[in-house]
Amino acid sequence: GTGTDNDLYINQAIVFIEDAIQYRSINHRVDSKSLWLYRWYYSRTCQWILSLTITIILALAFFEKPSSLTITSDVRYRPPAWNPPCGLTESIELLCFLVFMVDVSVKSYLIGWEEFWKNKWLVAYILTLVVSLIDWIVSLSFFCTEDVRIRRILRPFFLLQNSSMMKKTLKSINSTLPEMASVVLLLAVHLSLFTMFAMLLFARTKDGQQDKEWVGYFRNLPDSLTSLLVLLTTANNPDVMIPAYSKNRAYSIFFILFTVLGNLFLMNLLTAIIYNQFRGYLLKSVQSSLFRRRLGIRAAFEVLSSLREAPANAQQSYVSTEALLRVLRKVEMDSRCKQAITRSLKMCSCDQLSAAQFQKLFEELDKDAIKQHPPSPEYQSHFMQKMQFVFGHPYFGYLGNVVALANIVSICVVLVMDADKQPSERDDFFLGAINCFFILYYLLEMLLKILALGLKRYLSYPSNRFDGLLTVILLVLEIATFAVYGFPHPGWRPQFMGLLSLWDMVRLVNMFIVFRFLRIIPNMKFMALVVTTLLDLVKNLRAFAGILVVVFYAFAITGIMLFKGAVVPLGNIRHVAQFLPSARRGADYLSFGSIQIYRKKLHGCSSNCITWWCLLHLLSVNLICRWAKIYFVAWWLISSVIWVNLFVALLLENFIHKWDRRCHREPLSDIEYQRTVELMFRDVLEEPTEEELMEKLHQHPHLQLCR
Amino acid sequence: GTGTDNDLYINQAIVFIEDAIQYRSINHRVDSKSLWLYRWYYSRTCQWILSLTITIILALAFFEKPSSLTITSDVRYRPPAWNPPCGLTESIELLCFLVFMVDVSVKSYLIGWEEFWKNKWLVAYILTLVVSLIDWIVSLSFFCTEDVRIRRILRPFFLLQNSSMMKKTLKSINSTLPEMASVVLLLAVHLSLFTMFAMLLFARTKDGQQDKEWVGYFRNLPDSLTSLLVLLTTANNPDVMIPAYSKNRAYSIFFILFTVLGNLFLMNLLTAIIYNQFRGYLLKSVQSSLFRRRLGIRAAFEVLSSLREAPANAQQSYVSTEALLRVLRKVEMDSRCKQAITRSLKMCSCDQLSAAQFQKLFEELDKDAIKQHPPSPEYQSHFMQKMQFVFGHPYFGYLGNVVALANIVSICVVLVMDADKQPSERDDFFLGAINCFFILYYLLEMLLKILALGLKRYLSYPSNRFDGLLTVILLVLEIATFAVYGFPHPGWRPQFMGLLSLWDMVRLVNMFIVFRFLRIIPNMKFMALVVTTLLDLVKNLRAFAGILVVVFYAFAITGIMLFKGAVVPLGNIRHVAQFLPSARRGADYLSFGSIQIYRKKLHGCSSNCITWWCLLHLLSVNLICRWAKIYFVAWWLISSVIWVNLFVALLLENFIHKWDRRCHREPLSDIEYQRTVELMFRDVLEEPTEEELMEKLHQHPHLQLCR
């Protein structure tokens, strides 16, 4: 009937508008039941459950068998980590798989079966689930004693497929791969030619004294290749050339040539290529988001215009204001935007909306909320007004900065004076008294500012919130200290009492004071620019960070499987222990420091492996060592070379946009800076044309438009 | 009289056109004698003498007292270097100073006294000369025994002031300094805040076992600062965090945070800022060169139009063709251009030239010579024509590449097989026979190609020249080997004979073969692009390289003066010896490797200085150590951070331009690529307007134009 039809149209419009708000694709089923399922699937609860499931399945690696949940990382002192009984983590895993299965079926159903086969991500999702389940069954049937667990390596895929940003970024990276591969090929040619040169230059001589270089670094082909590869990372830079250099200064020419060509030219060329490929990346991604938004709004307009209530107009389609109001009431969106749209809809006073008017109404979505700070309180008394003027003035803030600086300097002086004192000689009186004074000043400053600005206005500035929070923490700590240890007096160094010793308390207070000093940032123009750039960058980097997590995770799990049992805790294996404790314990890979450790120890491997392990395991370990080398080189290439260059490219892109804008609109920037990427590019974005939108709409697999 | 006036005008026009060709400023005296002096000063001989003088005065550092002209760099085995007698280098220096004095007087005279005082470079030049001369006199009056020689540090100034490109680049760098300083300030804040945090975190504890981190890296303020500064260079990366990390894994958060903020964000921000500032640098410099050229041509037009022979025309000025021909005959310029201009002048058949026509004639200067390869010989015989087709075909070149690759692979195989053999076990027969065969093939290939292309056409391709030269060298080496050692046969390993042993000869041949393999580069499209980018870059980098030489030189000389006698050759001072031999010997600084050595040993200084030297010299050496630290930090900042970033910026700029052009004009790029920077930017350059040119001409300090 007409009523159900109308209801359907209204529901479609609601979903399309929500799609537009969230920049989602509108290519999903649009019948009543599917729409209900769609709204349920994209409801906050459902998405939250999905995210939680992904987090849980990724976090399982920390608790599973080679767990690394110990305080120390030193294999010698470390107590055996807690190993969960067989079946515990596995059952949690099964629960996660069940959630994923529901997820994939809903998703596949919603986009329709024809579309499903075109969507490679969904097919891969199902394959991953199937493989994981089979692996899970195998694992349980071996009572968790099997070595190879493929499903662990596959886990990060669940994170990947759930984020459209990450999928988009991956596509971008993928399109850069051919150029990157060319440079990597060039690097390989460079490396192999220089390796041959090196082997010819630093050959074994008859005089054993003369060939230190050969013994140390160029004994055979793998050794030479490793030496030069590590030289490319600059990790063994002066050491590798010292024996040759002390024999003849001219040998340094070889190493200089290699480093200049490899490090200075080819490596930076990689940066240039990646930057060149990514120059338009942000703009393109924002442009496609804009297209999705306009498309969603347009689709809503089209379905609403097919409502029977609307008068049939052959020339142009219209939407009645009433229908739109009905839709708006049910749409989930930011309340500020909803109010603004409703208000302008009522102000317009027309009964029908054309497509252009309809689109224009929703432009409110693109606008940034102009933040209005609440007004200061108005005092009657003349004295209070003067107080308000004095303590509301920026100079009072600057005075606060100067005092914070003085506090930092005093702490620094005490630290320098106490540097070489024994803990028993230390007297905390001076620092205690000074900090007490400064914290009182901070409290006073906060109270006076609240007095001048009013609590609401005070809290509306992020810098004040930061300031106030830290002041309160400092006050609490100070009161706790006094409550336990009494007021500062000469010789104020009581023994350990309660939770923390006095010394620890004082240190904690000092750390918070140093941290509080960051409040100066917004007052320094250039610093503020840099910090806002960095914050923007962090936002744009979420997708990259996600991909990085995926790569880290996969490498960590592969590392666990490859190096399982490779380290045998023998007498003095300190060196090996430093090298591989974390390769054995997977979760450590997730720490950034490890990248560097592996980069540094890459060369260590070739020498230590051979001396230590090859004595132990002879052939089998030699094989491991070779695998380890390949593993670490891959790790270095991906994490250090490619990822860092991607990061630099994004930073350049962001910073140059920001910088240009700062130069162009100097006067505006003081008022309120626009935060989102969409707004950063607003001037250069192209509005999609009517034809593009309609063409896309007619290609919709499930929506049949009347005209 | 009119005749002398006319001669003067002709001479002025000649000089202005030469200025235009060389992109020189036209703001110099224009009377007859000055013009003669000007042409003499800018003649090739004079400029060559000046360059030679600068080279000599810079090269003196290698021979002066702490000279480093020894083969080994190891202080233990090194024989005492040759020290020139007092007065030898000093008298050469005096000669150089005399040349510079002539140079500065001619330069000052030519630009005129009023202009002289405005030109800071000239004033600085004179000051430098005066200071150098005074220092020279002091030096001689002490019989060369004085320690501080200021004039050595001033020497690179002579290089700097002689190159207009370097002065321009320096100005550009100078304008980037405020932004760079901001980031460096930010880095300093970052470093100091984290140092305070570190000192609070890794404080001394009562339990001596627990504070390894404190003992090793954070004992006092300078130590902590150094540790974190070195962490910023990633030189001590895993080591500095290992003690804390093995105590508690959570401590790694501190180091990760520091590295991510400092290394990933702030350091790359520096790259972004420098790139942003240098984005327009190349374009701007090319634009100003174009302006100088147009201005010179226009000035020549104006003076020629004042010739009495020309008919007075109130509206517009004209130049007679005849006068221009007279000027052209005397101008020193590329003969190809001169011919082209004369030809088009004769073809034009008009008697008088307007300013626009005049300017247009000289646009020939901007054009690139389109290289025409000489034609192949035309053979009559059908067989020879077939031969020509076969061996002139690109596939024959590809076959040559494949053979070269096969040669490389065979050498590689032999190297791998021989890697662990004793020199006495080695048999050179296999390699000798193979190489003999391959070199014969190379010779054959060269001859056949010459047959097909003709000698002239063969030599007109750079890749063929490279190929042919190496083939000839290989042939000569091979013949020499056979002459001395006979033909290869099993057990071909005779003892040392003549200049080089057989083994060395074979190695030399192999190196040339590896080097010859580079001929594949032009055949791989992406490689060719990269290599041409690099070649362009090298051209644009000359100014940067000059500034780098200036900085290296100044640092080296400062290093010699600072660390003179700081190293006392005691028993086992291997560590110190590795660290400072080259700081003592200045010329070593000029090698790139040293940068890295100092970067690495920066931290070594803080620990080794204190353990070794402070035992020896107590207070005085401690002072030296602190100075050394400041010196090395300055060195790191300038050479590693700023210069490398400048390099990256230039590379990005060059590469992105090149890449864009490649994409836009794919079909053209095959024929002939344009080499000069001017041509690279031709599409985006703006022609200066008539008004700009005339305004500039009227500001000329010495030229009075009639109208």
From TrEMBL, chains A, B:
The chain crosses the membrane at residues 45-63, 92-110, 122-143, 180-202, 253-275, 395-417, 429-448, 469-488, 508-531, 543-563, 630-652. It comes from the Eukaryota. It is a multi-pass membrane protein. It is found in: Late endosome membrane; Lysosome membrane. One of its GO terms (biological process) is calcium-mediated signaling. Gene3D superfamilies: 1.10.287.70, Voltage-gated potassium channels. Chain C. Keywords: Calcium, Calcium channel, Calcium transport, Endosome, Glycoprotein, Ion channel, Ion transport, Lysosome, Membrane, Repeat, Transmembrane, Transmembrane helix, Transport, Voltage-gated channel. This is Two pore channel protein 2. It comes from Psophia crepitans.
